[in-house]
Design goal:
Elements (H helix, E strand, L loop, with lengths): L12 H15 L12 E6 L4 E5 L12 H11 L5 E7 L11 H10 L4 E5 L7 E5 H4 L13
Parallel strand pairs: 3-4
Antiparallel strand pairs: 1-2, 1-3, 4-5
The protein binds tetrahydrodeoxyuridine.
The site of tetrahydrodeoxyuridine (THU) has 13 residues, from helix 2.
């Protein structure tokens, strides 16, 4: 049973499915010729706009950028810095693709209370939800930069 702390309560199903759909559309633009592992992300900004991103790889492999960070950097460059939800979709439409550690840190900076939507099997309702706080406990936060 959902509790008052359940992130599913703070994001309605229609919005979750819309974000998953936008993340899938973004995934179609992934540039992933090396890993062949396309990823898409769709951020819901607090002003209601949706900003998307895909992974962008490079022949110099280590320079590759994940879908989530592409979305965050695109949104910030467009003037948006607060987000309420994000959907992340890997190659499979019916299985979660958990954000990597680097992306968790970058997303946390701009949305510690973000709801994170990940695809799941049809028998599990098609998607699952968690939060940035659950994905990155003990995050490095801007306040930590203040020292004597
Ligand atoms: N990737 C993402 O875009 N997001 C993640 O959270 C995990 C990994 C990308 C990076 C690389 O282009 C490919 O997936 C395989 O690691």
């Amino acid at each position: 049973m959902a509790t008052s702390n359940d992130p599913a309560r703070t994001l309605d199903a229609a919005t979750a499915r819309m974000l998953l759909d936008r993340a899938r559309q973004a995934r179609a633009r992934a540039y992933a010729p090396y890993s062949r592992f396309p990823v898409g992300a769709a951020l819901l900004a607090e002003d209601g706009e949706v900003v998307t991103g895909c992974n962008v790889e490079n022949a110099s492999y280590g320079l590759s950028n994940c879908a989530e960070r592409t979305a965050i950097f695109t949104a910030v460059a467009g003037g948006r810095t607060r987000f309420s939800a994000v959907a992340v979709v890997g190659p499979q439409d019916d299985a979660p693709c958990a954000p990597c550690g680097a992306c968790r840190q970058v997303m946390y900076e701009f949305g510690p209370d973000m709801v994170v939507v990940l695809p799941d099997s049809a028998e599990n309702g098609g998607y699952g939800v968690t939060t940035m706080r659950d994905l990155l406990p003990g995050a490095f936060v801007p306040a930590r930069l203040e020292h004597p």
